[in-house]
């Protein structure tokens, strides 16, 4: 049975490790499971970090770049059509330090308005009810800025962020902007993050890749009080939510 790390402790982060070590840790990512409904997701007792964003925000490319695996996160040929949550485990063989959750993209123009609303609600339900959720990475194309759907998601998770949930706005495709435009976009995103963080990222130029890997390692290795109880083995029970990602 897979061993696990201590459960997350809000508000306590260790010092950042070296960028190369963080990238080596990210490279251990491997497929864990996929679910079309929230109640099919396994219960996780290690930190879980969700990647969420518009269908064209570069989410799959970001995950593949961070993990140095070309096809770990699958980019659909029809953006916005993927309706599954995919989980990936992190940690050396036999050990699970953390889990990455790749959530379906939303907001793609070719998808009906009813589907957009439904998928957005599924994302919100996941983000506000998932007990193992430790951090959220919201990916955003800085040329477009945060959309109405992004802002609605931000508002929904704000109470959890205020309670200690880690949050990052990741400005992807930064290579499309000049340095001055990057600085302006980053300044705006920091104001919008509301207690979270904001960073610049470019898969093409490898800009911000090490820094994001270091941050995710910190989120996944919280400082645990000396008197904390030893965690149990990971459970395979499922959440009770009935929200379906499939029509």
UniProtKB/TrEMBL annotation:
Residues 227-247 are annotated as: Disordered. It comes from the Bacteria. The keyword GTP-binding applies. InterPro entries: G_ENGB_dom (IPR030393), GTP-bd (IPR006073), GTP-bd_ribosome_bio_YsxC (IPR019987), P-loop_NTPase (IPR027417). Necessary for normal cell division and for the maintenance of normal septation. Belongs to the TRAFAC class TrmE-Era-EngA-EngB-Septin-like GTPase superfamily. EngB GTPase family. This is Probable GTP-binding protein EngB. It comes from Acidovorax bellezanensis. The gene is yihA.
